[in-house]
Design goal:
The chain is an alpha+beta fold. Strands 5, 6, 7, 8, 9, 12, 13, 14 and 15 form a nine-stranded mixed sheet that branches. A four-stranded antiparallel sheet has the order 1-4-2-3. A two-stranded antiparallel sheet has the order 10-11. Helix 1 packs across helix 2. The relative contact order is 0.13.
């Protein structure tokens, strides 16, 4: 069983509780949240509410999630496979897909699709996360590498832990940056006011380093390539919000989203690894997804 709690701020008052929580919790679908409300697993200041309840500033929301223990099913779904051999699969993840099963997402994840595609995945992370060496947020698209066997998993996990994997992202951020390239070194920890958010903090935090360079500039937005030297939760989203240039569409970290993007425009563009079987250095690149491309095309037309 997992238990979460948060206090509503002034900027969110008047929002329907199911809509508010779906925005706050990436891995919980709105329909699943509604089921939790109906079953009394979500309370407001210790009182049950219905799904149409509009939250008020100061409301204390408590959520209880009972883990669903069951075998993960193989489900036929389209996978955008960039590379595959006997040891690894590299996919270009869609932005609306959760990586592994979680409350509210048991049969529509990358893992479900992988189980339908291959006979074997590494078992190191257990039944719910077979083959998963690293993850991307639900609304982040791009490269995800999956291990087909335990030997490959251990070697890839070692590379990620030692920070020898080179990870490059494309992000469309709000505003125009003061420098063509730069280094953001700001420690990240859990936001003390909301456990589902991260924040730049002096204490109770870990070192976080992001290097960026401008790819393309627009009137009020900038496309940047970001190389992350550390792998903190929401690192790029937090760092650029801290600079005052949140990722477009990332409402959690302050995006005004004037472009009306349906998700945060963040894409894992390039991965460089040492192949866990052959020892060969390999570089993978993933094209931007169509929604990201469409926003860039519109910005280019409006230049």
């Amino acid at each position: 069983m997992e238990e979460y709690s948060l206090t509503v701020g002034k900027k969110n008052q008047g929002t329907r509780i199911d809509k508010f929580l779906a925005a706050e919790f990436d891995d919980l679908s709105r329909s699943y949240i509604q089921k939790l409300i109906e079953s009394g697993k979500i309370t407001v200041s210790e009182n049950t509410v219905d799904k149409s309840y509009k939250i008020a500033a100061g409301d204390f929301i408590k959520i209880i999630i009972e883990e669903k223990e069951s075998e993960i099913k193989a489900v036929e779904m389209e996978l955008d496979i960039v590379y595959e051999d006997q040891d690894i699969i590299v996919i270009n993840k869609n932005a609306d897909r959760v990586v592994h099963p979680a409350p509210g997402h048991y049969n529509d994840t990358i893992v479900n699709a992988l189980l339908a595609h291959v006979d074997n995945l590494s078992a190191i992370n257990g039944v719910k996360r077979p083959g998963i060496v690293h993850r991307l947020d639900k609304d982040t698209s791009g490269l995800l590498i999956v291990a087909k066997n335990d030997k490959s998993h251990k070697e890839l996990a070692r590379q990620f832990k030692n920070r020898s994997v080179e990870k490059y992202y494309y992000a469309l951020v709000e505003g125009n940056l003061a420098y063509e390239k730069g280094k953001i070194e700001a420690p990240i920890g859990r936001d003390p006011n909301n456990r589902k958010k991260m924040a730049v903090r002096k204490h109770h935090s870990k070192n976080a380093v992001s290097r960026f360079k401008i790819i393309e500039e627009f009137k009020h937005h900038t496309l940047v390539e970001v190389k992350i030297e550390t792998g903190r939760t929401h690192q790029i989203r937090v760092h650029f919000s801290y600079l005052g240039h949140p990722v477009v569409g990332d409402k959690r970290y302050g995006s005004k989203n004037l472009l009306k993007a349906e998700r945060q425009l963040l894409h894992a563009k390039k991965l460089i690894i040492i192949h866990p079987g052959t020892g060969e250095k390999m570089e993978f690149e993933a094209e931007l997804k169509s929604d990201f491309k469409a926003v860039l095309d519109k910005l280019r037309r409006d230049k």
